[in-house]
């Protein structure tokens, strides 16, 4: 079995969602106001500092402002991709990985996270590499950070209809969440009403045909 598929299995069982929260659509106007206000406890730099040290006490409000607030930062570029991705993929396709491979996974994933810091899949790869290297404290830190991202997304909806769409700020989070929830991509992606990504699912025990994702922040980034 290729490493990448082993990681997807691990990805589905790794994360326990620590927060109890009510589902709520993000108020982008309010989030933008708060993350840009240097006097607010929800200012983005303050939240990101907590994220970097994996502060597990962050509230669901803080996690939501962190994740969605990133889309109001100058560096937000949801369609940009790193040159390191191809090299990382080559390592992940190996049947087995060496300690040197694990070190390279950490280096390459860090480069990718510089472009988009909230890729759960990159976090998962780092968790795997740290555990293989017996660096368990660092693996735990990555797990906490991944949970912050997932909590923010999962707090927005159930994904089974347009009205209950998951909100994301990057398309890669759509596929990551699909795998974490135990589904397989059915092969078709469609933009619905110019605002929602719809991903079909392979046959599953829940009889869910597909999941909806609200992608307005991604689409807004394309406007000049």
For the largest beta-sheet, the strand count, sense and barrel status come to: 4 strands, mixed
- Give me the oligomer status: single chain
Strand content: 5-15%
**Amino-to-carboxy terminus distance:** 45 Å
How many domain units? 2
The number of helical runs is 10
Overall number of strands: 4
Which class of secondary structure composition applies to the elements?
Answer: alpha+beta
Average pLDDT score: 92
> Can you give the helix content as a percent range?
40-55%
Signal peptide: 1-18
Protein name: DUF4919 domain-containing protein
Organism: Flavobacterium rakeshii
Pfam families: DUF4919
Task: Give an account of the 3D structure.
It is a single chain. The chain has helices at 3-14, 28-36, 44-52, 60-69, 84-92, 99-115, 120-132, 136-154, 171-180, 216-220, and strands at 166-167, 185-192, 196-201, 210-214. Helix 1 crosses helix 7 (120-132), helix 3 (44-52) crosses helix 4 and helix 5 (84-92) runs antiparallel to helix 6. It has a four-stranded mixed sheet, covered by helices on one side. The protein folds into two domains: 3-154, no CATH class; 166-220. The protein is of the alpha+beta class and 224 residues long.
Secondary-structure topology with pairs:
Layout: H1 3-14, H2 28-36, H3 44-52, H4 60-69, H5 84-92, H6 99-115, H7 120-132, H8 136-154, E1 166-167, H9 171-180, E2 185-192, E3 196-201, E4 210-214, H10 216-220
Parallel strand pairs: 1-4
Antiparallel strand pairs: 2-3, 3-4
In short:
The chain has 224 residues and is α+β, with helices and mostly antiparallel strands. It has ten helices and four strands, in the order ααααααααβαβββα.
């Amino acid at each position: 079995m290729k490493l990448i598929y082993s990681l997807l299995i691990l990805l589905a069982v790794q994360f326990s969602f620590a927060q109890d929260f009510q589902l709520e659509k993000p108020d982008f106007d309010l989030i933008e106001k708060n993350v840009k206000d240097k006097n607010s406890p929800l200012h983005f730099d303050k939240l990101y500092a907590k994220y970097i040290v994996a502060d597990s006490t962050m509230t669901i409000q803080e996690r939501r402002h962190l994740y969605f607030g990133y889309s109001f930062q100058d560096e937000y570029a949801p369609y940009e991709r790193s040159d390191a991705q191809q090299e990382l993929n080559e390592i992940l396709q190996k049947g087995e990985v060496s300690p040197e491979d694990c070190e390279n996974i950490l280096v390459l994933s860090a480069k990718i996270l510089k472009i988009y810091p909230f890729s759960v899949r990159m976090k998962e790869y780092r968790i795997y590499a740290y555990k293989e290297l017996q660096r368990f404290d660092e693996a735990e830190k990555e797990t906490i950070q991944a949970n912050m991202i997932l909590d923010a997304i999962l707090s927005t909806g159930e994904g089974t209809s347009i009205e209950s769409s998951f909100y994301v700020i990057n398309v890669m989070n759509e596929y990551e969440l699909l795998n974490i929830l135990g589904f397989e991509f059915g092969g078709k992606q469609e933009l619905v009403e110019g605002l929602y990504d719809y991903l079909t699912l392979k046959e599953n025990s829940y009889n869910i045909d597909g999941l909806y994702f609200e992608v307005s922040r991604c689409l807004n980034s394309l406007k000049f």
